[in-house]
Amino acid sequence: MKKCFAFEIAMIAFIFSIQNLAFAEPSPKDSIPQQQNVYQGIEEITGLKGTWNDDKTVFKVTHPRSDVKVSVDGWQIPPFMGLTSWVGFQKNPKGGMMVMGDFVLFQDEVNPAMTVALENDLDVTALHNHFFYDEPKVYFMHIVREGNPENLALAIRKILDKIKEIRQKNPEPLKTFGLTHNPEKNSITPKTIEAILRVKGLSKDGMFKAVIGRNTTMPCNCEAGKDMGVNTWAAFAGADDHAIVDGDVAVLESELQPTLKLLRKSNINIVAIHHHMEGEVTRILFLHYWGIGSTTDLAQGLRSVIDIQHVTNKP
C-alpha cells in the first residue's frame, strides 16, 4: 500500500510539473526544478533510473538485459557491450517531449512488445540484429514518438512489463512460434489467394507465390520496379487450412505504422524492418514477416495492407 501510495503521489507531482512545463516561459533557470520533477516522474513510471545530459538536454533511462545470458561467437557478452535497452526523452519545441529508444529483445518478445508499442501510440521504426552467432538470438526494436511525457513514459513501462511477463512465464527464450509445423506435402490452392490479393501468382511443388510491384527512382534517374526488388511478395506453403506465409512488404514511410498495425492485428509476425536502397525517391522501406494460419486469413491480412498503399501497384 505504501509503495502504491508513493507512486500515486509521484504521478500527481509529475502531472503537475508537466502542466507547468507546458505553460511556463522558456527560462532555463526557472525550468530546472520543473524539469527535475518531470524526470523523477519518468523514473517512477518506467521503473528505470535515468541520467541527465545537460549539453544535449536529454534525459535517458536504461535497462540492461542481465536476465538472460547471451553468448556471441561462444563468448558470454555483458550488457555493457550492447545488451542494454535505452530510451531518451528530449523537450519538444512544439510542446511536450520527443522520445527515441532501442529495445533489446529476444525472438519470443519481439512481436508482443511491438504490439504493445503500437497499441500505445509509439512508432516502431526498425527491427534488426546487431550480432552474428548469438545464442539465444537477440533483436533490436527502435521506437520514436512525440507527445505528453506521462503518456510516453507509460507506453515504455507497458513494453517493459510485457517483456517481464514473457520471461516470467519462460525464463529461457523460446525457439519456435509455437504454431509452426513442417508439412510433409504442400497443397496450396492458388485461386483462393489470387482472388483475395487480386494478382496472378506462380505455383511450384504445391507452394504458391505472388509478387506486387512498386516504383521508385534511383540516384541514376533509373526507375526501379518489381523486377529490381521494389515489390511486396508473399509465399505460401503447407495446406489451405494450415499454411505458412512469409514475405516482404515494400512501404512508403507514411505507410509503415499502419502496415505494422494491420499485420499484427492479423496475427502475422514481423521479423525485420529496414531499407534495401539509399538515395531513392520516393523512399521505400521493407518489412519482412512470417505468419501461420489458413490461406484465407493470411491472404486477407495481406490484402488489408495492400489496400492502404497509395500507388498503383503493377502486378
Can you tell me about this structure?
33% of the residues lie in helices and 32% in strands. The chain has 315 residues and is an alpha+beta fold. The chain folds into two domains: 2-169, no CATH class; 190-306, 2-Layer Sandwich (Alpha-Beta Plaits), CATH 3.30.70. The strands form four sheets. A six-stranded antiparallel sheet has the order 1-2-5-6-9-7.
Secondary-structure map:
Layout: H1 2-23, H2 28-46, E1 50-53, E2 58-64, E3 71-72, E4 75-76, E5 84-91, E6 97-106, H3 107-119, E7 123-128, E8 134-135, E9 138-147, H4 149-169, H5 190-197, E10 202-204, E11 207-213, E12 216-217, E13 223-224, E14 231-239, E15 242-252, H6 256-265, E16 269-274, E17 284-293, H7 295-306
Antiparallel strand pairs: 1-2, 2-5, 3-4, 3-8, 5-6, 6-9, 7-9, 10-11, 11-14, 12-13, 14-15, 15-17, 16-17
What is the SS-derived class? alpha+beta
- Give me the Rg, rounded: 22 Å
The biggest beta sheet reads: 6 strands, antiparallel
Q: Describe the strand arrangement of the main beta sheet, using strand numbers.
A: 1-2-5-6-9-7
The percent range for strand residues is 25-35%
* SS field, number of helical segments: 7
Number of domains as seen in the coordinates: 2
Q: Helicity, in percent? A: 25-40%
Number of strands: 17
What gross morphology would you assign? globular
Query: Oligomeric state of the chains?
Result: single chain
Contiguous uncertain segments of 5+ residues: 19-32
Q: What is the residue-mean pLDDT, rounded to a whole number?
A: 90
